[in-house]
Amino acid sequence: IDVLWEEYQKTLEPLREKLNAELKQSWQEWEIPREASEDWSAAAKATHAAWWETRRARQKAIDASIAAKAEFENLYDKPYEDKSKVRVAGPFTAESLSPHRVLEMLDDNLAPSARDSYDDPREAGNFIQVILDNLESSGVQQADKNAKINFSSLAPWPGDLVCAEGRYEDADGKEKRAAILIGPEFGTVSRPDLVSAAREAGDANFDVLIACAFNFDAQSSEFSKLGRIPVLKARVNADLHMAEDLKNTGKGNLFVIFGEPDITILPEGGDEIRVKVNGVDVFHPGTGEVTSSEPDDIACWFVDTDYNEERFFVRQAYFLGANDPYKSLKTTLKAEIDEEAWQSLHSDTSRPFPKPPSGRIAVKVINHLGDEVMKVFTVH
User: Fold this and answer.
1) Domain spans of the chain?
2) Nearest to 145 by CA among 289, 256, 292
3) Cα separation, 295 vs 276, whole angstroms
4) Claim: this prediction has a pTM higher than 0.85
5) With helix as H, strand as E and coil as C, how does 332-359 read?
6) Is 3.40.1340 the CATH number for 115-257?
7) pLDDT given for residue 358 in this prediction
8) Using CA atoms, how far apart are residues 165 and 177, in angstroms rounded to an integer?
9) In a 3-state reduction of DSSP, which class is residue 189?
10) Spelled out in words, what is the top-level CATH class assigned to the domain 261-378?
11) pLDDT digits (tens, 9 = 90+) for 138-184
12) In whole angstroms, what is the distance from residue 320 CA to residue 345 CA?
């Protein structure tokens, strides 16, 4: 490719210099317009046409060289169906906004808020209003259905990160004020965002901060309270990306709070450790208290025994849940499951593993609603 480029450059460069001289310009190669202007001279138009003809010839030569010598890799988007096999996982993997790698930032250079993600502030306003409309009608759901937060009113708030004030009643009928933070439509909410919003909520005498976002970064999972202000992270259902095309019925789990998992690192002796999941913290709006649920409220949990801060690798997987968590799998596979083998996966305590060279492990917990949260631990 470099040889072809140099060969054609011997013709293109003189033509570019000639065109600049005729038009009294100083265009670089990428600045030359595709169409000649009507007020150009005939000579300039001819030079312009010759330059573009040579440029296209160079690209064709490069494409032909790549086609003749480059390695090919077939990509398939329509896998054929094999009736003799039972599919357990989905046919495709999906990429999403990564919550894992977080760049360090100064306190005065926080991640952008929802409004900063738009060139036109009116676009941010439309998105935030759609989220608030659905939030008011749907409320905020938790794994415990009795802990749902239903707003009696939801009004805009002239804050920096806090954009709305929600009111709800506790168990004694006393009205509580919730500060609402709306994350960006395409992006993640970081821990510095939550810290700043919690400070703002405390200064305005709110009772709780509810952060609504499509994604939260890994470090934000460890932040659940600032002073007296509980911080609740409500994951927004991806359906609200198409909110304008959906009816606002107030039904469905559009905003779900998945509390911080209660995890214990157990020394196993020597250089090995275990991970134990005790449950997930649940916020009770009626009392304002945070309690820990049972491990059965967790659908599954995974361990990355050597977390690199960029990707989460499932190195150990466990499936909890009350009743028979494998009944559906048995039905799908139309076969009996090896009870002894599956029993090793139905556990709230991991198998022993050596301490990682990186000094970090990550634990991802998923509830029965499909919401997930990840925590990163430093082990020495």
Assistant:
1) 2-69, 115-257, 261-378
2) 256
3) 10
4) no
5) HHCCCCCHHHHHCCCCCECCCEECCCCC
6) yes
7) 85
8) 7
9) strand
10) mainly beta
11) 888 766 666 678 888 888 888 888 989 999 887 777 888 999 999 88
12) 8
